[in-house]
Amino acid sequence: MAEFYVEKNAQGNGNHVVHTAYCSLLPSKETVHYLGSISNTQSAVKKAAELLRKQASGCSHCTAAYQTI
Ligand SMILES: [Zn+2]
After folding, report:
1. What is the pLDDT of residues 36-51, one digit of tens each?
2. Quick check: 33 and 5 in contact, CB under 8 A?
3. Domain coordinates of the chain in residue numbers?
């Protein structure tokens, strides 16, 4: 399990990036939504997309360890 956050601001491609709590690229707490303690990246990305009603994707720097195979 990991604590996941999603950025409120979209990237240039329209995706909102999902991070884990300990990512060095995680922006300040005012600019992210807390998603909760979630077991894998796919579930966190799905939850972020539902919350924002926008596209979301996992941060390549921090979420790779939580991908399901
Ligand atoms: Zn990250």
Report:
1. 999 999 999 999 999 9
2. yes
3. 2-66
